[in-house]
């Protein structure tokens, strides 16, 4: 008597049924690389909301607070490495099944895992941009400049917060020196989209073009509470292509999903490795 074949994971069946997956990833994809996420399983903030764009641009004390915490947080964030979720999605692309990967993360870990077709929806934290002349500088170079200007702060340590931030509480940031652009003296900002700042139109347009070519959508590690990512799920729903999501807890798109898998990203995608 032969035993019945083992049932396959519903996500594996979903992936096998589609040849041009549009993949959208969020913070949950990188938590196993040591980068904390923003929200709990209900989609609520775990901590104070990230810095606002207008406050960063108009308030020196906000820039001092941001860069002081970033000086501490970058030391570990910059050393983060891809986990099995990133490698699994890179394998999906290598197998010719991924139309495009759109990530809300700013850590570049998909690229480090070998993924080629990636759109960084919210920019990249490994670059610093001058808001005056547009000059871009590698973050590790700016880290050296920050450290040189604030040597005493290098003796501090703090627990990690999302996106290279650090939980540096009860510190007086008034003495922190933030270097200006060497070219024009302008304000330096990480090359990422802050809350209150718009995603560049060309980035959105390029992602939408790829979504139009996809035959299904896969969301990995995102609650979709931020509209900049949720809009792509709305587009997929209007096109009536199936949408699957891997996320621990509620998503903003639960009523639009054909399949939802509440597992850690690396576990749910293990069949791809």
TrEMBL record:
**Catalysis: reaction(s):** N(6)-acetyl-L-lysyl-[protein] + NAD(+) + H2O = 2''-O-acetyl-ADP-D-ribose + nicotinamide + L-lysyl-[protein]
- Details of cofactor binding: Binds 1 zinc ion per subunit.
Q: Which residues bind NAD(+)?
A: 104-107, 221-223, 247-249, 265
Q: Which UniProt keywords apply?
A: Cytoplasm, Metal-binding, NAD, Transferase, Zinc
Q: What is its main location?
A: cytoplasm
Q: Which top-level enzyme class is recorded in the Swiss-Prot or TrEMBL entry?
A: transferase
Recorded GO CC terms: cytoplasm
Q: Name one Pfam family in it.
A: SIR2
Q: Can you say where in the cell this protein is located?
A: Cytoplasm
The cofactors named for this UniProt entry are: Zn(2+)
Q: Which domain of life is it from?
A: Bacteria
Q: What is its EC number?
A: 2.3.1.286
| UniProt binding sites for Zn(2+) | 130, 133, 181, 184
Q: What are the catalytic residues?
A: 122
Q: Residue ranges of the Deacetylase sirtuin-type domain? A: 1-273
Q: Name one GO molecular function term.
A: histone deacetylase activity, NAD-dependent
Q: What does this protein do?
A: NAD-dependent protein deacetylase which modulates the activities of several enzymes which are inactive in their acetylated form.
UniProt cross-references to HAMAP family, sorted A to Z: Sirtuin_ClassII (MF_01967)
Q: Which family does it belong to?
A: Belongs to the sirtuin family. Class II subfamily.
Record PANTHER family: NAD-DEPENDENT PROTEIN DEACYLASE SIRTUIN-5, MITOCHONDRIAL-RELATED (PTHR11085:SF10)
**Stated name of the protein:** NAD-dependent protein deacetylase
Task: Name the gene.
Answer: cobB
